[in-house]
Amino acid sequence: MTIIFNQTPNPPAPAVHILVIAVGKYPYLRGGSGPELLPNGGLGQLESSMTSAEAFCRWLQTEFKPRNLPLGSIEVLSSAGATFLNSQGQAVQVSTPSMKNVRKAVADWATRGDQHEDNFTLFYFCGHGVSSGLVHSLLLEDFGEDVNDPFNTGAIDAELFMDGVRSKSARSQLFLIDACRTVDHAAFAKLGAQRGAPIISAPPNTRLGVVEQACLWATSLGSLAYGIHGQPSIFMSAMLHAMQGGGAMQDSDDGSWFIHPEMLRLSINHIIQRIPAFTNSVRQYTSLDRTVKGLPVHSLAGEPSVPVKVHCVPASRNSLTTFSCSSGAQRGNGPAEPWHLDLQYDRYTFDAVANDVGAKTKAAMAHPPFSIVAFDYQP
Mean pLDDT, 10 residues at a time, over the chain (379 residues)? Predict the structure, then answer.
């Protein structure tokens, strides 16, 4: 197993313990190095899993500020092709995400989380996901090696896994599942209803009302999660962007800002809509379940940076209009898409100038999870 960061308090004290699993190489799926499991629903190799895990681990070690807790540990399992640095900046060879290695890593991670009830445990998975509608399977690197039972020997049952983790002592638990949730009954029907190992077993309602547990899925049920060649996944890119402030809410006592899962979901989905191929579509829509009253994820050092969309109604006038903001930012006419920018939490004045209509001015607040400034040119 590979711990790239370890400052676990001794004696035990509250801390954040993180497990990252990135699967991009699937030897027994299409394009893999081993005999291909058939049928497999067209599943093959993934490009962005390792890049996403690298980006997340960099952020965790350089920008992550847990609220009222120190960072205790980061453990990583990843397919080959990624570079992970330890706290001294040295490259570390990490273990592969096989079922055997995952079982050991989860056990170690859960043990660290079990050391104090005020611990915060965070789990991130990036790789193939398969859904039967009720069961969500996260496929590990050796999925398909056992052709007679590929799911139970090479996949995690996500819901049972989260139920099991909830039985542990840590009262704050966040799961980030960066995987597809497609339903492909035809490809896997012969394999039965069981679609993965729980890894940690426990009754489904254990410690309800005691543990604050949330799961942020990269996409909605029945939908795909996308990546971009050479870059982190759509979900990871948008999430790290939202961590700058779009996903923030304000503490009702001291007024400080912290990232909250519900605000994070809203901001991520707005940021995904900035991508031209995803605008005005539901190709990928981040969803949240196992929601809780409060689960502070990350503290901001100051005011949040907020995604802002400036556009015309109707949209056809975007290309005819020059936009500017009292922050000093501006965009000339020509582009058909809205003007997207990020502004510190504050009130701003926005101007829209079109030769055939003249100038229009609007005042608006840039506030999480996002702000919309619409100039109405409708008749």
Answer: 90 96 97 93 94 97 94 97 91 96 97 96 97 89 94 95 96 97 75 84 88 95 89 97 97 93 96 86 88 87 97 95 97 95 98 91 98 93
pLDDT score at 344: 98
Spatial contact of 14 and 118, defined as CB atoms under 8 Å apart: yes
**Confidence at residue 181, expressed as pLDDT on a 0 to 100 scale:** 92
Tokens at 357, concatenated: 């209509």
User: What domains does the chain contain, in order, with CATH numbers?
Assistant: 3-299 (3.40.50.1460), 305-376 (2.60.40.1120)
Task: Report pLDDT for 188.
Answer: 75
Contacts of 259 (CB under 8 A, 6+ apart): 242, 243, 247, 248, 296, 297, 298, 299, 300
Q: Which of these, 30, 81, 22, lies nearest to 57 by C-alpha position?
A: 22
Give the strand pairing for 91-92 and 84-85: antiparallel
Whole-angstrom CA distances from 107 to 115, 180, 199, 251 are 13, 25, 8, 34
User: How far apart, in whole angstroms, are the C-alpha atoms of residue 109 and residue 199?
Assistant: 12
Contacts of 283 (CB under 8 A, 6+ apart): 223, 224, 226, 277
Residue with tokens 């109604």: 313
Query: Do residues 261 and 199 lie in contact, with contact meaning Cβ atoms separated by under 8 Å?
Result: no
Residues 6+ apart with CB under 8 A from 253: none
